[in-house]
Every structure is written in C-alpha cells, then in structure tokens.
Design brief:
Domain PAS: 160-189
Number of helices: 19
Number of domains: 5
Protein name: GAF domain-containing protein
GO molecular function: phosphatase activity
Keywords: Hydrolase
Oligomer: single chain
Strand order of the largest sheet: 7-6-11-10-9-8
CATH class of the largest domain: Alpha Beta
CATH topology of the largest domain: Phosphatase 2c, domain 1
Structural class: alpha+beta
Radius of gyration: 42 Å
Number of strands: 34
C-alpha cells in the first residue's frame, strides 16, 4: 500500500545529477528515513547520470513510500538503449568498465530492482526495505561534563503549533501561551504569517508561506508576543496529513538560546577516533550541512550554513559573504551572532589590504583582531577577537567567503581552518547554484518591473504625476523612502520636489529633515553614490532632542519632541544613495533612495534603480518639454480669442466655445463681438478649414482683419471681400473658411436691427416667442476660394422675445455612427427654448450636442446666442 509519493523532473544537463541527489535526500529525510538515505542517494546518482549524460534525455525521479520500504524510479526517454549485460551469467558489468555500474550497484544495495520498457520511455527502479529497528538509541552524542551542557531555564517550554493548509493556526498548546502570551482562543483561526517576524528580503529566498510547504524545515525566526515584543525562537517544522489527506504543518518552537532541544545533532568524533588525513578533514565535517534547505532557497541555505558553521567550531558568531560578478567585492548575505540588520548587504573589498590576512581568496586565521585592527572590517566594534575565514570556490573561481568568530583571542588554529574549509567546499556548489537561481529570478522580476514602469511613465505627460510615479515605483519595492530633486535649468539649484516614505506618518518629518540638508551635487556620471548627509543630520537632530529633553527633565519634556526626532533618525539612518536623472546630456535632477537604520542596498537593487532612473529621467524631461509646449500653445491660442465680450444695451449675448483636442483652447472655429461706433456692434462666427496651427493662423488673421475693416466704416460685403483678398494673398498657406458676419444696432423701440452676410456658413436661426423657428439669412459663397465674391447684406429685425442662434458646423455635424444631429435636429432643440435667456438657450444647445453621442466631440464648436428681452407691462 502506497502511503506517500514525490516526483520531480530534471533536464539533461550535468547539474541535474546533484539536484536529483538533493531531491531524494530531502524527500527521505522529510519522511524520517535517514537510515536508508545514503544508499538511495548513491543509486539515484548513478541512474540519473545514465539518463541525463549517457541517454541524453530528461529524467523523472519518483520516490514511492509503502509499508515495507521505499521504491525509487528513474525514467528516461531512450527506450531503445539496451541493458549493458554480458553474455555469460548474471554479470552486470565489471567495476573497471564504464557502462552498467548503476545496475551493478542496484544489484548490490537494493532489496529488489528492475527495468521496465514502454513505447516512449525506459524506467529503472530499485526498492530499499526498511531496516529492523529494535528498541534503543538510534543516534547519540558523546557524554559531556555538566558545565558543557546547553544552558536552559528551570523548565524548557516547547510550543506546539499546528497550521492548516491555508496557513491558519489550528492548534496552540499551553507552552505556546506561556512563551508568547497569546491565549488559544485569540490565535486559533488567524494567519500564522501575522505572528512570524520572518527574516526575509522581498523577491528573494523563502518566505514563511513557502517554508510551511516544505516537508521539513529547521531554523530561527521571531514570534510577535501579545505585548508586541518579538521573541527569537528556534523552530522545527514537519509537514503531515490526516486520514482524509488534508495537509498541515506541525511547528515545534523553543527560545533561540535553547535550540539544542530541537536542533539536528552534529556528530562529534570520539577522542580516539583520529583524523582522516587522506581526506584533509575530520569526519564531523561531513555532517555539518546535512538537512539543509532546498538548493534554490538561497536565504534559508545561507542562514543554515552560518548557524551550522558557528556550532561546528563552537563560535560566538558566523557570517557568509557572496562575491559580486566581477569578484572585486563581497556582499554580506547571512550572519548569526552579529547585528545582522546593520551588516546585511554591506559590501567589503575582496583584497582588504596587504599581508597574510589581506585577501579573501585564501583561508585565514586571525588569532587576535586587537593586534591587527581593521583586518576584518565586518567585525569592527562587535567584540569579536579571533576569527577564521575560508573562501567558497567553484571551479577555481571565488564565489564567497565563510567566517566564524569568537570573543576570546587565540580561539582558532589551522586545524579549525581545515575543518571549516572542508565544510565550505561541500556547500560551495549548492550556494552558487542557489545564487544563480536567485539571480535569474531577480533578473526576470527586474525585466517585468521595468516593463511595467516604462508603461506607466509613458502613460502620462504631466510633470507632477511623473514625479509621483517615480516615487511610488521605488517605495517600497526598492527602498524604504525616496526623494526626488529637480533642476529647472543649468543655472538653478536642485529643488526638493517629491518625498515618499512607506510609513505615511513619517513623510512630513522626512520632508522637513531633507529641506534642512543641502541637496546632493548634480552630476552626469551614471551609477549610485552614497550620500551621508541625511543620516548625519537625522542623528544630530535626535542627539540634540535627547539632550534637550534630559536637560528639561521628564516633567518638561515635550510629548512630540524626542519620539519624533528618534523616529526620523530611525527612518533615514541606513544607507542613502543618489542616482542622477540625466536626459539629453543634461542633469535634470536626482533620485534619492534610503533605507532605515543600519541597512544596506544590495547590488542588484541598485542596478535596477539605475535602469529605472534612466527611464524616469527621460519621462520627466518629456513632461517638462510637453508642459512648456502646452503653455506656449495655450498662450498663443488665448491671444486669438476676444479678451471680453462687451455689454450690448437692450440685447442679451452669450457665447459658448469648445475646442476639440487635448490641451487646445482655440481651434479652427472662432467668434467675436466688438463695438464699431455710433451705437453699432460687429459680430462674427466662423469656421476655418482644418485644425491645428495652420487653421489657428487663419483664425487670427480673420478675427483681427474683421475688426480693423469694420471700424474703417466698411459694410459687411466690403469687409468680407477685403478679408477674402487677404486670405488668398497667403498663397499655399491659405485656408478657406465659412463666415457669418453682421452688424447689430439696438433700436429705441426695444428691438434690434441686424445686417447679416452668411458666406458659406450654417444659416442663423431665429426663434420667435410662439416657438416658430426660421432661417434668418440666405447662403452666399464662402471666402478663401475665389477672387471675385458677389456678396450682399440682409436686414433682420429682432423683436422683443426673439432669439438669434448662430453655430458652427461642429454643432450640426455631431454624429453617432451614421446618425447626425443636422439642421433639423438643431431646429427641434431650439423650439424648446422659448422664454429662455440667451445663456440658457446656448447651454441647452450644448447639452443636446453632448448627449447626442457618448463619445466626446471630435470637432470644434462655437455657439452665439443673442436675445432681445421682452418688455414687461407696467403695473397699474
């Protein structure tokens, strides 16, 4: 009966053999079958090698657990390959020949084995039976004196927490309540991730949710107590399932200093066991990293490595650094026993100096750091006196450095260096593989991030929105806080334009702090550079506030003083970097990124931020150019509109103008109303062919020419004939236009007399008080086409209550698919305007045009309404 099954597929590449070994090891250890792990790993290694190296196909490895043992199946896609059997007897190959060794090992180590063929695959399997397990001790450590035993409290509390498949706490024992202060009824049903203070960097490594999905996991993290304190615990996770098949995770937790209760034991050789001189390392070094996390979990692997290295050499602290791609610097990625928040992602040079301890490329033993100050910069001011460091190398290339330190001088010798070097050699390949996997994942995430950032930045040409997008894309993805400085022109000083912090309550304090600090220097040189001024200013302000509060005494201490200053210092106390914003060979600003207290940026994040800054700089400069162009365009467009409409005695006048297109205030349509003299007023409404700057130029020519010619005393036909000649003189730049021009003269009897010329323009409509609508003019030829125009004036008298409506074709040609408002539709709208003022008539016409179709209008519109008010009868 099968009780558990796990499977994985491996590509036909050399590193797949190591990955397959790790898969089988982790699976069997997760099932608690450490007794047969070694045999299973050896056989799996041989069979997977046959598949991916000799057969050249992918290999599928399955681990099947039954009641009597474990069956390992290795399948490949090369069924034609024959078994390497000899002709005589059951000789499965000689140890001296290359082929057949895997089957020879199967015959020697497995209880049963076999080969199965199908049309598309070949499967080699072997089964290892469970050994008899008599009562007694399965593994044991040496007898130790009492003073060497781990120190615990009077009573060791082991919290047992069960978490269901969705990550919710389903069980919480009394020890968990004693350790963390939460009662079971408060915790059961809540997400365990809300309690775990997980040492995890976003976008890298394993998080709490992933760790709970592993078959086994062991390591340190924090638990948030009921009083908001974080207690560091050492935990062992075991994933199980109930009879119904529902998975859950059982977590055993003790306080971190009592980790010996749960931590997997490390074999310590007996005093007389001697050393394996031929292997160059003691036998206990073989057991240091057994049970490590999955190879692609870099953070978990590194943290487990430093913890096991510290325990192996009985040190007080340990750290692991990974080399950058050019191998010139090392970056701190994991540490234990050190202030990790301050050290994480800090960078140190590979060649630290001259002398015996100057390079990370060779093992080194520092007997007393007090004699050689600065030999290990990472341990400065930590209290560590002796340290042993060894390189991590893969194929002769430096990939990292592993160090173990102690507070006592002279603690380590060359013997400990050899032990640590052997352990480092064992883990180096797994670390490098996990690092490359993480790097690939980071690069894919970076590409996705940059694509999304480019789309967002390209979606706006507004300067303020671009600044906000720049900050929101960096916080909190790349940094804890961000500030953007802008430079208006080469002679201007940088100006703080935008500040953002992941904690909104700290934005004002951060902005106030940065406003008191001189801005960073604007440079064209690409790349991030460290800027220490904000951190120094924050620390100085916090110190001054603390001293002031101490001098005033607790009773006089301001409630918002020290806390606010210390909070600001904590917010900006980490590493701060500045990236230049350069566009078109000009520095237009700086992008400043910061971390909280004692944190550093990792190199990959800085490279991503540099890519983002280049895109953001171009987007910001495009927004600046667009804003300048829009401002100039709108200024010129406003000059084409009449500044104000004069008040005409006895006549209501209302104009509504809408220019189509984003950022346009004037298009090809225009209007005007101006005094001519002797109580007369000229009015015009027109539409120039086309849109854009060319149409706007003809608009300006027409409006100004009409005013000049009308004030010279010319009548309507003469005015339009002169305008026609001026337009034709423009040659190829000329545009024809439709124009309604007239003279308005109020009369003493309350009416208004109009002389109108309608040159190719939609006819003006006259609305009478009884609701009838008629055309107020006749169509005539339009200007800008022929030299000789034969135009004439028509006289219209508006009686009290009459309305004259003049529009451009943007109103009558309003469309929805094949349907158009047209002259009839406009007439129908106007018939409903009886008794309305001129302003209400114009507004109703505009509303009808906008509601005619759901899409915004695509043509300019001008509406000119004139109404002669009705005379109210005198009260008797």
């Amino acid at each position: 009966m099968i009780t558990a099954r796990a499977a994985a597929t491996f590509e036909p590449v050399g590193r797949s053999v190591a990955a397959a070994r790790a898969f089988v090891r982790d699976t069997l250890q997760g099932w608690g079958l450490a007794d047969i792990v070694d045999d299973a790993v050896v056989l799996t290694s041989e069979l997977v090698t046959n598949a991916v190296v000799h057969a050249g196909t992918s290999a599928e490895v399955s681990c099947v657990r039954s009641e009597g043992g474990v069956r390992i199946e290795v399948s490949d896609r090369y069924p034609e390959r024959e078994l390497p059997l000899e002709d005589t007897g059951r000789n499965y190959g000689s140890p001296d020949r290359e082929g057949g060794r895997g089957l020879l090992l199967c015959a020697a180590l497995a209880a049963r084995w076999g080969v199965e063929y199908s049309a598309a695959r070949k499967q080699v399997w072997f089964q290892l039976d469970f050994p008899d397990r008599p009562a007694g001790t399965r593994s044991a450590g040496p007898a130790l004196p009492a003073e060497a035993l781990p120190v615990t409290d009077t009573r060791v509390r082991v919290a047992v927490v069960q978490i269901d498949g969705s990550g919710l706490v389903s069980a919480w024992n009394e020890d968990a309540q004693d350790l963390f202060g939460h009662r079971p009824e408060q915790i059961v049903g809540t997400p365990f991730a809300d309690l775990a203070a997980w040492p995890h960097t976003p976008s890298t490594g394993t998080g709490i949710a992933e760790a709970l999905q592993l078959s086994r996991w062991e390591g340190s993290y924090g638990i948030t107590c009921a009083d908001r304190r974080v207690v560091v615990v050492y935990a062992s996770h075991l994933r199980v399932r109930d009879a119904a098949g529902a998975p859950s995770t059982v977590c055993l937790l003790v306080r971190d200093h009592e980790r010996a209760v749960l931590q997997s034991p490390v074999r310590v050789p007996a005093p007389d066991s001697g050393r394996h001189q031929d292997r160059g390392a003691p036998p206990d070094a073989f057991e240091v990293f057994i049970g490590s996390p999955a190879p692609d979990d870099l953070d978990g692997l590194l943290q487990r490595t430093v913890e096991r290295a510290r325990d192996m050499l009985d040190g007080d602290a340990a750290y692991l650094l990974l080399a950058t791609d050019d191998e010139t610097e090392l970056e701190v990625r994991a540490s234990t026993g050190l202030p990790s928040a301050r050290q994480r992602f800090a960078r140190v040079p590979v060649e630290a100096g001259t002398g015996r301890y100057g390079s990370a490329r060779m093992p080194a033993v520092h007997e007393d750091l007090g004699v050689v100050p600065g030999a290990v910069p990472l341990l400065a001011n930590t209290g560590m006196r002796s340290v042993v460091t060894v390189p991590l190398k893969v194929e002769g290339r430096l990939t990292g450095s592993l160090g173990v330190a102690a507070e006592m001088p002279g603690r380590y010798s060359n013997e400990e260096a050899l032990r640590l070097q052997f352990a480092a050699d064992r883990i180096a390949l797994a670390v490098e593989s996990a690092r490359l996997t993480e790097l690939e994942r980071l690069r894919r995430g970076s590409l996705s991030f940059l694509v999304e950032a480019s789309d967002l930045l390209a979606g706006t040409l507004d300067r303020d929105q671009t600044l906000a997008l720049m900050a929101q894309m960096t916080v909190p993805t790349l940094a804890t806080w961000c500030a953007v400085y802008t430079i208006a022109d080469p002679t201007s000083d940088p100006e703080l334009s935008y500040v953002l912090h992941e904690d909104e309550d700290r934005i004002d304090g951060l902005k106030a702090l940065l406003s008191k600090v001189s801005p960073p220097e604007a440079v064209l040189t690409p790349g991030a550079r460290v800027w220490t001024a904000p951190t120094e200013a924050a620390q100085a302000a916090a110190l001054r506030t603390t001293l002031r509060s101490l001098n005033l005494g607790d009773s006089a201490r301001p409630s918002s003083g020290p806390g606010a200053s210390l909070a600001t210092a904590s917010a900006v106390g980490g590493e701060t970097v500045v990236l230049p914003l350069v566009a078109r060979n000009r520095a237009i600003g700086m992008l400043t990124l910061g971390k909280p207290t004692d944190e550093h940026f990792r190199q990959e994040i800085l490279e991503l931020a540099e890519d983002l800054s280049r895109r953001a700089a171009l987007a910001l400069d495009n927004a600046r150019l667009y804003s300048e162009r829009t401002a100039i365009s709108q200024s010129l467009q406003r000059s084409l509109l009449p500044p104000e409409l004069p008040e005409v005695p006895g006549v209501e006048v209302e104009v509504i103008y809408r220019a189509a297109g984003e950022g346009n205030e004037v298009g090809g349509d225009f209007y005007d109303l101006f005094p001519i003299g002797d109580g007369a007023y000229g009015f015009a409404i027109g539409d120039v062919c086309g849109t854009g700057p060319e149409a706007a130029a003809v608009t300006g020519l027409a409006r100004h020419a009409l005013r000049l010619l009308a004030r010279e005393g010319l009548g309507g036909p003469a005015v339009l004939e002169r305008l026609n000649a001026a337009i034709l003189d423009e040659g190829a730049r000329s545009r024809f236009l439709t124009l309604l021009y007239g003279e308005l003269r109020p009369q003493d009897d309350g009416s208004a007399r109009l002389k109108v010329v309608c040159a190719g323009h939609p006819l003006p409509l006259r609305l009478r008080p009884d609701g009838s609508v008629t055309a107020a003019a006749e169509p005539q030829p339009l200007p800008g086409v022929m030299e000789d125009l034969e135009l004439y004036e028509q006289t219209v008298t508006l009686d009290p209550g009459d309305v004259l409506l003049c529009v451009t074709d943007g109103v009558t040609e309003r469309r929805e698919d094949s349907r158009m408002l047209g002259d009839d539709g406009l007439t129908e709208v106007l018939t409903t305007c009886t008794g309305l003022t001129a302003g209400a008539v114009a507004a109703r016409v505009l509303r009808a045009v906008e509601r005619f179709a759901p899409d915004p209008p695509s043509d300019d519109m001008a509406i000119l309404a004139m109404r002669v008010p009705q005379t109210l009868p005198s009260e008797s």
